[in-house]
């Protein structure tokens, strides 16, 4: 029995296996991800692209901003092709190595059949040795050595028996384990170089790379914003709970990303000493005399002046301040998202009573308003029509006449084609076509809200202290669908009449009826009614029962109808009737349903007590799948391109959605940043219902971060009922007198404002 032997690869052939596998592991994904690809744009999208002078110049600037792109692509292709050539060479060497290390067969080498006689073996050996001998012109040393070994294996009796028994003329050999490294690595004369290379790679290069990455990563937040900037946002938002728009713009311009000490990409020029003061003289109400740090620093004043010039659409020196404008404006959307998150976290801390002052809802909304202003290069008080190509301040007079007064893009899109062309008669045909392309691709969002208490026994009844889940359905369409159509108000009337008749159809441009997409109640909502998570419900109910009534409960009947002037807002509150799984009609959003109980549902709930555990498991699985889907959708940053010729980069349209109380100026839910609204999107917003029964009016808001005048708001009537009394058979939920006294001492005031309180004021 042979022993074991460890040895390095003497010939270097085994080393090819290691290099081949390692190179293939790197080369295949590198080719897939880094090979330069020519993007073939869709001809339909190219036809829809605006060809106004500002958009054309923007595309040229974007292409010129990467002057070394072609050289970089050439070297990337050269490196990838060289890697594949090396991979092919290694594969060839490995194939040759496999052929040379095949099984040793002496009969095959001598060209004889098995069982040949000694005379035939000697004759074949002499014949081939005359040709393969190294001294001959046709000699081959390796082939001659194999021939000699084969001849010895067949002429020597012991070698022949070893070959027949073990497959090796030398008998059983030692089991060798080869290390796929060439033997010169462990040679004494090369040890210094090998150790030096090892120290350079693993003790210098690798720690340096990891340390550099770590140092850079800890300086930024999740939105790739400097942590110093985030701390500055927290300080000023806490200092100014009610922040006006220009104050928010001033704080945005003081971001550390615009300071050369924090960002090496910032360029400071000698010409700034002349150009910046000249620009300041042209911009009134800039607030450059503010003494707060870092609002008074030169970089902050320069960035503020550039942003004001950008919003006023002023021309700047093309080689100096214009370059700075493109960089500063391109960084603003991410900074605004971080600013909104900071205000939202301060509001959460104020609710937790960790900070004394609560930022108002106007503060966070003013921060949101900065994004569409900067993307469109337009002040908020300017006309939204200036977002269209070729429209200037001088052309706004054409949109105001005795018959029509067009103030928004939606009103312009609703006009009939002939009337719209007559209104835009100052444009030629090419300019008019570009304007219609931009107007037609402008988003129009269908906004639907559904309010439920999912984890409660009766999801349609909102009790005091319950967790209210507001499901928001967003469906995006283009304004081209409104060209020549009836107005939105007439569409809503048609929609209500068709819903009253039990039809789901909508009038189209060609007069035909089309199936309208409706949002049906999912099956899991029916299951949520069957399950009985009573523990939390009873705890809240017992607290409400033990607490003395500090104010009278609101009546169960719905509030009185609003005056005729508010008829439009009342229509938005109405929700279409839907059918449950059993086929019963249910008005999801009406106040009648919120104030009534269904006896049939109670009976069916009593019959289904045997399947509560299964429903709980299904509910938990569904929640996990829903949260996973929301996380995956949140990572997507692709929706629809925005027409923004004054923004230096390509921009995708995003949205903010949140719920607030306008009467108390408070934010109820964290703003959800919707970044993947391609066609439809569904999101859930949760908040705690008021602690006191009553009728509350809340607002669900949708704000665009790319367009001015695209914001929507839908009022929600929340009829909060008193929590049910605790049954006598559950004494473990009874509260002691001390707990009742503690509840009486703290927090009798509600963070919401009811409609009755407003009327009394």
UniProtKB/TrEMBL annotation:
InterPro entries referenced in this protein's UniProt entry, alphabetically: C2_domain_sf, DnaJ_domain, Ig_E-set, J_dom_sf, Sec63-dom
GO aspect biological process, one term: SRP-dependent cotranslational protein targeting to membrane
Entry GO terms, CC: Sec62/Sec63 complex
Compartments in which it is found: Endoplasmic reticulum membrane
Ranges of biased composition (kind: Acidic residues): 752-761
Pfam families, A to Z: DnaJ, Sec63
Annotated stretches, region: Disordered: 493-619, 722-761
Protein name, as recorded: Translocation protein SEC63 homolog
Source species of the chain: Bombyx mandarina
């Amino acid at each position: 029995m042979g022993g074991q032997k460890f040895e390095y690869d003497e010939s270097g052939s085994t080393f090819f296996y290691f290099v081949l596998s390692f190179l293939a592991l790197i080369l295949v994904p590198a080719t897939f991800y880094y090979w330069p690809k020519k993007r073939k744009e869709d001809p339909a999208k190219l036809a829809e692209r605006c060809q106004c002078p500002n958009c054309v110049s923007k595309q040229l600037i974007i292409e010129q901003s990467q002057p070394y792109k072609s050289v970089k692509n050439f070297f990337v292709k050269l490196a990838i092709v060289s890697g594949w050539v090396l991979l092919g060479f290694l594969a060839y060497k490995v194939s040759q190595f496999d052929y040379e290390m095949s099984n040793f067969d002496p009969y095959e080498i001598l060209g004889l059949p098995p069982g040949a006689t000694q005379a035939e073996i000697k004759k074949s050996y002499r014949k081939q040795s005359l040709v393969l001998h190294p001294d001959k012109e046709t000699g081959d040393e390796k082939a001659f050595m194999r021939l000699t070994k084969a001849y010895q294996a067949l002429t020597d009796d012991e070698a022949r028996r070893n070959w027949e028994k073990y497959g090796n003329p030398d008998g059983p050999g030692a089991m060798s384990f080869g290390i796929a490294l060439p033997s010169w690595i462990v040679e004494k004369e090369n040890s210094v170089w090998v150790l030096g290379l090892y120290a350079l790679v693993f003790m210098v290069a690798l720690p340096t790379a990891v340390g550099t990455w770590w140092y850079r990563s800890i300086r930024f937040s999740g939105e790739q914003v400097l942590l110093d900037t985030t701390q500055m946002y927290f300080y000023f938002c806490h200092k100014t709970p009610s922040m006006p728009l220009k104050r928010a713009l001033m704080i945005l311009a003081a971001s550390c990303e615009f300071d050369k000490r924090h960002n090496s990409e910032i360029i400071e020029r000698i010409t700034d000493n002349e150009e910046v003061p000249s620009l300041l003289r042209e911009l009134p109400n800039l607030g450059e005399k503010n003494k707060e740090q870092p609002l008074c620093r030169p970089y902050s004043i320069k960035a503020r002046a550039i942003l004001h010039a950008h919003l006023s659409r002023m021309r700047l020196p093309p080689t100096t301040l214009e370059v700075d404008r493109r960089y500063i404006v391109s960084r603003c959307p991410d900074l605004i998202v971080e600013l909104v998150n900071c205000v939202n976290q301060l509001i959460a801390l104020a609710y937790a009573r960790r900070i004394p002052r609560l930022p108002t809802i106007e503060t966070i909304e003013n921060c949101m308003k900065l994004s569409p202003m900067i993307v469109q290069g337009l002040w908020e008080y300017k006309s939204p029509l200036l977002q269209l190509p070729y429209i200037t301040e001088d052309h706004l007079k054409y949109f105001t006449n005795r018959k029509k007064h067009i103030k928004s893009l939606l009103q312009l899109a609703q006009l009939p084609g002939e009337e719209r062309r007559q209104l835009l008669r100052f444009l030629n045909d090419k300019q008019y076509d570009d304007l219609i392309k931009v107007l037609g691709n402008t988003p129009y969002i269908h906004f639907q809200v559904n309010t439920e208490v999912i984890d409660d026994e009766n999801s349609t009844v909102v009790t005091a202290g319950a967790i209210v889940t507001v499901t928001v359905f967003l469906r995006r369409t283009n304004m081209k669908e409104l060209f020549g159509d009836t107005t939105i108000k007439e569409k809503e009337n048609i929609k209500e009449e068709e819903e009253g008749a039990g039809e789901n159809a909508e009038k189209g441009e060609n007069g035909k009826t089309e199936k309208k997409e409706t949002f049906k109640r999912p099956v899991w909502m029916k299951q949520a009614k069957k399950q009985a998570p009573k523990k939390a419900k009873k705890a809240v109910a017992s607290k409400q029962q033990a607490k003395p009534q500090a104010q009278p409960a609101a009546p169960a009947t719905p509030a009185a109808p609003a005056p005729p002037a508010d008829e439009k807002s009342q229509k938005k509150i109405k929700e279409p009737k839907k059918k449950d799984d059993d086929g019963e009609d249910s008005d999801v959003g009406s106040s009648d349903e919120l104030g009534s109980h269904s006896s049939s549902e109670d009976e069916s709930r009593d019959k289904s007590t045997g399947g509560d555990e299964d429903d709980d498991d299904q509910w938990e699985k569904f929640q996990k799948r829903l949260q996973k889907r929301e996380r995956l959708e949140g990572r997507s940053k692709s929706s629809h391109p925005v027409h923004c010729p004054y923004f230096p980069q390509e921009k995708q349209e995003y949205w903010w959605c949140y719920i607030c109380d306008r009467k108390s100026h408070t934010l109820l839910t964290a703003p959800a940043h919707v970044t993947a609204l391609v066609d439809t999107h569904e999101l859930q917003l949760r908040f705690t219902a008021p602690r006191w029964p009553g009728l509350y009016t809340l607002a669900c808001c949708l704000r665009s971060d790319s367009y001015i005048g695209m914001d929507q708001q839908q009022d929600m009537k929340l009829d909060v009922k008193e929590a049910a009394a605790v049954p006598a058979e559950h004494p473990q939920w009874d509260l002691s007198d001390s707990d009742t006294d503690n509840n009486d001492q703290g927090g009798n005031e509600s963070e919401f404002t009811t409609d009755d309180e407003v009327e009394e004021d």
